[in-house]
């Protein structure tokens, strides 16, 4: 693991941040080699992350916007991936639930630091009927 530079040895915060090690890992595959179904690559990568011992490989940042268009983000755990989309749970009375009700679009961002991989999923979100134990109440695609 790279050594973190001592902040006090830099003239300002910007210089220190720019000196921090970043984005290690493998180079992403060329776009023309990716599978036609993006969920195939996602499932391969999350499986590899889990097998490599990446902590909480199913953790993702969910980004939404409120009724006024202000962005918001929070972390959650993915519950399932199906042909219908990426499934997560939430309370419709929570800020997340209210934001999705007002503007039913979302983005999920997964980051597996140890492998230098990230996945972004974005699109419409819809309230779902209880899916499977543990029950989920919304999905994003």
Written account of the structure:
Keywords: Flavoprotein, FMN, Oxidoreductase. The chain is α+β, with helices and mostly antiparallel strands and 141 residues long. The protein has a domain at 58-141: Electron Transport, Fmn-binding Protein, Chain A (Pnp Oxidase, Chain A, Roll). The protein has helices spanning 13-19, 38-51, 95-102, and strands at 59-65, 71-77, 80-82, 85-88, 105-112, 117-127, 138-140. The chain has a seven-stranded antiparallel β-sheet. The longest helix has 14 residues, at 38-51. The radius of gyration is 18 Å and the shape is globular. Mean pLDDT is 85; it is low at 133-141.
Q: Which of globular, elongated, flat, extended, rod-shaped describes the shape?
A: globular
- Number of distinct beta strands: 7
The average pLDDT is 85
CATH homologous superfamily of the domain at 58-141, by name? Electron Transport, Fmn-binding Protein, Chain A
**Uncertain parts:** 133-141
CATH topology name of the domain at 58-141, in short, is Pnp Oxidase, Chain A
CATH architecture of the domain at 58-141: Roll
End-to-end gap: 35 Å
Lateral strand order in the biggest sheet: 2-1-5-6-7-4-3
User: CATH first level of the domain at 58-141: which class?
Assistant: Mainly Beta
Relative helix content: 10-25%
Please tally the helical runs, counting DSSP H or I stretches of 4 or more residues. Answer: 3
Q: Give the amount of beta strand, in percent.
A: 25-35%
Structural class by secondary-structure content: alpha+beta
Radius of gyration: 18 Å
Summarize the biggest pleated sheet: 7 strands, antiparallel
Series of secondary-structure elements, N-terminal to C-terminal: HHEEEEHEEE
């Amino acid at each position: 693991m790279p050594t973190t530079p001592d902040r006090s040895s830099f003239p300002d915060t910007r210089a220190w941040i720019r000196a921090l090690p970043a984005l290690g890992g493998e180079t992403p595959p060329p776009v023309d080699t990716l599978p036609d179904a993006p969920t195939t690559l996602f499932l391969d990568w999350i499986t590899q992350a889990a097998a490599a011992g990446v902590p909480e490989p199913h953790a993702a940042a969910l980004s939404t916007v409120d009724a006024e268009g202000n962005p918001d983000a929070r972390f959650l755990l993915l519950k399932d991936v199906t042909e219908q989309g990426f499934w997560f749970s939430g309370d419709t009375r929570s800020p997340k639930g209210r934001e999705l009700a007002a503007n039913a679009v979302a983005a999920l961002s997964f980051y597996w630091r140890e492998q230098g991989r990230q996945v972004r999923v974005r699109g419409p979100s819809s309230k779902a009927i209880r899916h499977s134990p543990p029950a989920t109440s919304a999905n994003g695609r």
